Amino acid sequence: MSFFIISFLVLVAVCVGLYFYSRKSGTKIEGSSDPGFVYFRNLYLVVYLLGMAGDWLQGPYVYALYEHYKLSKRDIEFLFVAGFGASMLFGTVVGSFSDKFGRQRNCILYGIIYSLSCLTKHSSNFWVLLLGRLLGGTATSILWSGFETWLIHEHHSRGYSDRLLEEIFSWATIGNSIVAIVCGVAAQYAVDLFGFVAPFDMALIILVIMTVIVWLKWPENYGDASADLKKNFSDALTTVRTDRRVLCLGVVQSLFEGSMYCFVLEWTPALTPSAASTMSSGHAGKIPHGYIFAAYMVSLMIGGQLFSFCCNRSKPESFMRWVFGLSSVCLVQPALMRSDSLIPITFVGFLVFECCVGLFWPAIGTMRSKYVPDSIRATIMNLFRIPLNLVVVIILTQNFPIVFIFKCCVFFLIICCGIQFYLERLTRDEAPVESADGQTAEKSTEDDRKEFQGIA
Description:
Blueprint: H1 3-25, H2 35-56, H3 62-68, H4 73-95, H5 97-101, H6 103-120, H7 126-143, H8 146-157, H9 162-194, H10 198-217, H11 229-242, H12 244-271, H13 289-311, H14 316-330, H15 332-336, H16 343-371, H17 377-383, H18 385-397, H19 402-427, E1 433-434, E2 440-441, H20 446-455
Antiparallel strand pairs: 1-2
Helix pairs in contact: 1-13, 2-9, 2-10, 4-7, 4-17, 4-18, 6-7, 6-8, 6-10, 9-13, 9-16, 11-12, 11-17, 12-16, 12-18, 12-19, 13-16, 14-16, 14-19
Region (Disordered): 432-456
Protein name: Major facilitator superfamily domain-containing protein 5
InterPro entries: MFS_trans_sf, MOT2/MFSD5
């Protein structure tokens, strides 16, 4: 049995142990058993996880489908760059529609656009596939902003506490990991039985179901429906420029997620031995990708469970300082050198990094709910996806050595750690301010505005 499989089994045991420990000793959050909240939480989680399932089903087989259609490596790389480019350009605009036209409508738009993207996979024509990548890139921008903005507004409008919101984010991270594993297995069976297009047809069905549930069950909510899109972008840029809390969160989001995407692109070559080894356990010169991916997802689940423990003792603004510091240490080894003998150490670092990612997702959502204004929340979130997608496009288009890429990741994560220390100091003695419409937001002081206007 290889080191990778043993690691996966150990992680499963740890995850199960944490789950039962949390049920036995965890402090119950006030209001968490309220029937109204339970219905609201479950309704959101069902829709969100269906939306994520539609994405997870497609991911493992996009490249394989393009190869099946006999596309050249250059064409495949161009299609991937086009997807991230569409997310950076079109997705920023479309994802921001929710502030003016409604968050529920934006999530419905996600289901429609991504479903159309799935349909294009039935064609082997390059231009049809390119259209699919553009649609898919645009849809993912909505996925990473539209659902969260609807949740935060609806959560606060119903009068639920911030601790209950933290619980929803934690369950969303854990559930997303389970969905990823299930979708990976289901996609493999679908390909074996029906061919490479089958996972995309499964995703299409799930996305249609999700869209119908959103249409029937989710109430509509808005940011500033009276403002035009130009004003929304102007207000978002002004907020980023004048509110140090929002700026810090945005930079942290861009750099950490940029490092995460670089990791996703590079973990396979980092763990693949240059020759056959005992670690591969029969996979001559290769690695068991399925077990490794499953191990990453279990690590993500562990991070989601640890988030609840951390929140019982501290605020995300505080404990995320150490999470970012630890995540930078996790990637130091592949940033220094690559050696077959060091692959076990590299893999352990990657597992801990995934655990940090599991802590990051609910933490960043919780902090955004406090400090990003509700009226332009989606616009601001999508603005900070521009540098994130730019980082990925540069990585995809340049033939950087793997060691250099991981050095960039470590550098980005160290910056995240420093910024988080600054953010914790900024917010140490501050409490969220309730706005007139009941939304929780953190207001900048006049001194902050003057200081940033002077810098600008």
